[in-house]
Each structure stands twice: as C-alpha cells, then as structure tokens.
Amino acid sequence: MLETQQAAPPPASAPRPDSWRTVAAAMFVCGWGGNQFTPLLLMYRQLGGYSALSVDAFLGAYVVGLVPGLLLAGPISDRRGRRPVLVAGTVASAVASLVLCFGGQSAWPIYAGRLITGIAVGIAMSVGSSWVKELSTEDDSGLPARRASLCQTAGFGLGAGVAGVVAQWGPWPMVTPYAVHLLLTVAIPVLLLRVPETRPPLPHTAGLRELLTTLVNDLRVPAPARKRFRLVVLPMAPWVFGSAGLAYAVMPQLVGSHVGVWGLAYATGLTVLTLGMGAAVQPVAKKLHSGTGTRAGRAPVAAMTVMLLGAALCAANAVLLSPWLAAAAAAILGAGYGIAVVSGLLEIQRMAGADDLAGLTGVYYTFAYVGFLLPTVLATLSTWLSYPVMLTAVAAAALICLSLVVTGVRVTAMAASAPK
C-alpha cells in the first residue's frame, strides 16, 4: 500500500544470488539472543532465587518488546528501507546481551534486557523475513519462507543449546552465555551495510497524520484474504510459540524434581529437541502447503492435529511427571511448531502485496507470539488451579482451534472455487 501523493522510490539495486545469507545471519543471531534465556530459567531460580512466577514474567517482558518490534518495524522498513531497520535490530540484540551480562542479580535489568531482546527479535522476524524473500532470486516461491523460518529456528535452537551447556558446565553461568552471543553478533551490523537495499527510502514529504495512516494500512489484511486469515491463520498462529512455551518452559519445571542436578541440561535438551524437530519438518510443511483448494490447507490442519497430540501428552504428563514423556511431547510439539510457522508465512506471503509484506508478516508473528505468554498465564493461575486441570484445558483449546482451521479451510476453498 503506497503512500499517497508521493513519488515512487528509485529502483532498488539488483541483489546478488547469495545476498540473502547475510540477512539470514542477522535473523540467526537475533534468534540466538532471543532464546538463549529460555533454558536458563532454572538457573535464575536456583542461583538468583527468583520465583517461578518471576522467571515466567521475564518471558512476558520479552513478548512485550516483541509487539512494537513486529508491528512497527515492518511498515517503517517499507518506507525507510530494510537495511537501517535490521541494522538497528541487530545492534539492539547485542545491547540486550550486554545488559543481561551485568544484570543477573537484579530483576529490573533482566526485565530491561528481555524487553530489548524482544524488540530485536521482532525486527528480525518481520523485516528479515521480508528482506530474505526480496533477495531470493530462485523460482521456488516457497523457498524464501523456508529460508527465513529455518534460520530463525536454527538461531533459537543453537542459542538455547549453547547457553544451556555453557551455564551448566562453564564458568560464570550468568555471564558467559551472553558473552558468546555478543561475540557472534558484533560483526553482523557491519556486514549488513553491504547488502543491497530492496526498499529504497521514500521521499520525506508525508505529514505525520498521513504517515500514521499508511502505517496502519500496512497492518491491514487485504480484503480478499480476510476470511482466510480469520478462519485459518488466526486460530493456528498462537500455537506456533504456544507449543514452544509448553515444551521448553512448562515441561522442564514440572519434571524438575525428577532430574535433580541435571535440571539445566535437561531443560536445554528439551529446547534443542523441540526446535531441532521444528527445523527438520519444515520441508514437509512446504509439501503439505502446495496445491490449490483444500489441498492448500493441509499444512495448517496437519499443524493443529500435531499440536493437539502434543498438548494432550503435556496434560497427561502433568499427572505422570515423566521426563521421558516430556521429551516425547517436546518432539511432537516441535513438529507442530515447524509445520505451523512455515505454513503461516506461506499464507501471509500469498495474501500480501509488495508494499505490505513486512507489515503483514509482523501481524502474523504478533499473533504467533501471543502463545509465548502461555507459561506466564499458567504460572499465574497455578495459585488456584492445578497443572493437570490447566493443561487439560489447553488441550481442549487446541481441539477447538483444530476444528476452526478445518472449517476455515473448507469454507475458503469453496469460496475460491465458486463461479465469479
């Protein structure tokens, strides 16, 4: 959606075939910074003396930072260019680790560090995903979505894995994991300056009111796609990271008493298992998403079916408290995550135009990250409700969302095939 009464931007420079790799590296390090904290939740409880509610609230601060990063960075980059926005996001990711390095003994620096981390990840996901798509020159329309989601997922997984291992067996467990991320990130902003710009800045002629109006317009789903978005994408999106929250934030704390001194290593293993499975199944998601009509809806239906199975196992394990069953649930939820995140990006890329791709990508990821608040909600409600009851309710919610997605795929496929 172009700004009114503005000259078109000058043509973007032609991208090199491998230009997307540097952008993918930025997404990777921002994802690393975003998820390196998750396996350290037990460490903060044991060494820092924080309560379960406090460490889950640290996750909540991350989501609060994500929202402006996801919703504003994309539309701003549509007008001011991808490069400066993603450079700022990568710098913010490094600053967040610097804050966390020196703030482990106080809650407020942790909240601040996690908030900044959320902003950085939000920028990387909305702007980085769009920039990778624009820099990809291959004919495969699904390849950019797989590249973006795979790099982000790899960053999430390796960041958590390395941070957990370093904190379990390395020196200065509240400092060293963040120092590793700083070393990885420091050169990326400089390398991004060499990547061709695909959205040259528009002239600064719009007034504030007009600029705000166009930013809001960029966050609107195009009218022909709204029913599909509402009935298929929206019921699935919160489960993308809701599944991750169940797998590597809720399960390790539930079975923590059964793994003893290996709690941090176990939490790290569940995180890597979940995200590793998510990365492994992403090519399957592309195949499930290919086709037209109801065939194009197989990926969201498959994702929600797998999510339901994983949520049901979590509910059962809230009673059994088995580390092995928790690992099985994490693997299944990881598969659901992998299918859901790719199919959601493909749905958005099919709906969006060139001028609102980054904005709609941010909208999708915002709804996806709502699910990451699930551990905080469960920890808050645990004062009044038991985890078996709450996780049974979560499984019931997954069943409802699966029903909505199945219905939405059928309804939108019928509307698309109806005579015009």
Write out key terms for the chains shown.
single chain, 420 residues, 17 helices, disordered N terminus
- Helicity level, as a percent range? over 70%
Structural class: mainly alpha
Unreliable residue runs: 1-12
Succession of helices and strands: HHHHHHHHHHHHHHHHH
- The whole-angstrom Rg is 21 Å
Count the strands? Answer: 0
Tell me the span between the first and last alpha carbons. Answer: 25 Å
The average pLDDT score comes to 84
Inertia-based shape: globular
**Content of β-strand:** under 5%
- Sheet of most strands: none
Q: Tally the helices: what do you get?
A: 17
Written overview of the protein:
The protein has helices spanning 20-35, 41-48, 52-80, 82-102, 107-135, 143-169, 176-185, 188-192, 208-218, 226-254, 263-280, 282-289, 298-320, 323-351, 357-370, 374-381, 387-417. The two termini are 25 Å apart. The protein is built from 17 helices and no strands. The radius of gyration is 21 Å and the shape is globular.
